Every structure is written in C-alpha cells, then in structure tokens.
Amino acid sequence: MTTRTETVRTEHEGPVEIITLDRPSRRNAVDAPAARELAAAVHGFEAGDARVAVLTGAGGTFCAGSDLKAMAAGEFPAPALDGPPPMAVTRTRTSKPVIAAIEGYCFGGGFELALWCDLRVASETAEFGLLNFEHGLPSLDGATVRLPRLAGHSRALDALLTARRIPAREAAGWGLITTLTAPGEALKTALALATRIASLPQPALRAARTSILTQAPLSEPDALRNETALALTAAGSIPPDRPLRSRLP
Questions:
Q1: What pLDDT score was predicted for residue 247?
Q2: Residue 130 contacts by C-beta under 8 Å, 6 or more apart in sequence?
Q3: What protein family is recorded (predicted)?
Q4: pLDDT digits 0-9 by tens, 153-169
Q5: DSSP 8-state class, residue 66
C-alpha cells in the first residue's frame, strides 16, 4: 500500500517501509511542510509493524538540503535551542534501523539527514557536502556531531571548512557509505539490505543497535554494563521454547 502526502510518499514491501522525499522540481529540498510530513512518516514507521525503513528521494536525487527559497521567505520556524531542527527528525532516535538510499545530490541538510540514518547505500554518481556553508547557513541537523563520529575529526573539518562537493567514492573511503552501487541501483540495493536485516530475529538485533548508539558518552565499564542490560532485556523476550543458549554459537 502506498500513502502519499504533498511531498512525502510511503509504501511497504513486506517488512520494509520506503519513505520517499517527493519534490523532484526542487531536487527534494525540504521546506517546512515537507519537514513536518517527513517527521509524520518516520513517526508512522516507528509506531507501525515495519522492521526497517529505507529513506530515499524521487527523481534521481536524494535531497539537496533545506529549501533556500522557503528559508528566505521566512517559512521555516526560527531556530531555537530546544526547538525542532530544519529536517525535524534529526534530533530523534528510532528504535528500528533506517537506511538511506542515495542517488544524485546529498547536500546540506540532506547530507545531515543521511548521516542520521543507520546505514547509507549510495550510487557511484552521488555527491555529498555541506554546501549550506557557501550560503552562510549553519548546521542545525547534526553534521558537526555525527560526521566526526562516522568519518573522523580531520575529515569532518575538511568537509565543513571547504564546503566542497565530495564524490561518492571519496565518501566511501571515509566509511560514510555502507555499499557503493552502479547508477540507479541504490534503492534496489538498500531494499535487499533492509530485507536481510528484517529477516533476522529482532530483539537481540535491536538491543545491540541500541548499545552501539548509546555507548559514546559512557566509560568502558558502564558501556559494557549497558550492553549486558540491553542483551538480558532482549533475552527476556525470547519464547520459552527458544532459550538464550539456542541463539549462541
């Protein structure tokens, strides 16, 4: 079943939900209504039965960032310390994996949106970059936090201070891209990856994911204790006829 709002389309393929930014005339740049619709789609995924989401863009482009025309017209709410960021979802954490399927432009807030995802599958012709700095616009959707954690301090500064376009192969060398595909194959490859993830037993998988996502501020002993607590919680959800030892090597 496909659900369409004005700028975001959602559809299901078995246990996978596909969320598509659908503003091809604006290179899928996000304005305030699109940001709200994207947040609603992600909330629907979180509350629904799908096990994995794939986030992509229509018309051969992932997302060119925030819609500069809409920003110039004052259509975005004024940024605030505790308010929603421009992309609306980038300060949230889903309990289930999200994979970005990237073709074409992945710039500014669109790049930050991709960094928010768990995994990134990208075409060889995709381009990445914080081009918002060319326009004097700061990052408000997590680039200065997630990019150094994923690619390292020096590479994050390279991307930020130069505001240059980063080719897909270079981004892959930075570890930002999970899988590099031929042009036009990003969505198909991401769906195959999502289907694989969705086929695995979920409690232990989600506990391990949560451990990875929450360990950064913890000391090693506290992170190990957190891992154990999450694993034991997941083990408690295993049916009695499938005890924990049956899942171990």
A1: 43
A2: 107, 108, 111, 139, 143, 159, 160, 163
A3: Belongs to the enoyl-CoA hydratase/isomerase family.
A4: 999 999 999 999 999 99
A5: B
pLDDT for 72 equals 81
**25-49, pLDDT tens digit by residue?**
999 999 999 999 999 999 999 999 9
Q: What is the pLDDT of residue 249?
A: 35
What are the tokens at 136?
């004097």
Q: Do residues 64 and 84 touch, judged by C-beta distance below 8 A?
A: no
User: What totals of helices (H) and strands (E) does the chain contain, helices first?
Assistant: 9, 10
| Regions of the chain where pLDDT drops below 70 | 1, 4, 237-249
Which residue, 167, 178, 189, 186, is CA-closest to 57?
A: 186
Interatomic CA distance for residues 156 and 60, integer angstroms: 26
Question: Six-digit token pair at 95?
Answer: 């309990």
Instruction: Evaluate whether 166 touches 143 at the Cβ level (below 8 Å).
Output: no
Q: Structural domain boundaries of the chain? A: 2-199, 202-247
Q: Name the token pair of 125.
A: 């012709």
Q: How far is CA 52 from CA 2, 57, 95, 115, in A?
A: 16, 17, 10, 16
How far are the Cα atoms of 32, 76, 127 from residue 73, in angstroms, in the given order?
Answer: 11, 8, 27
CATH of domain 2-199: 3.90.226.10
Q: Which tokens go with 108?
A: 């500014």
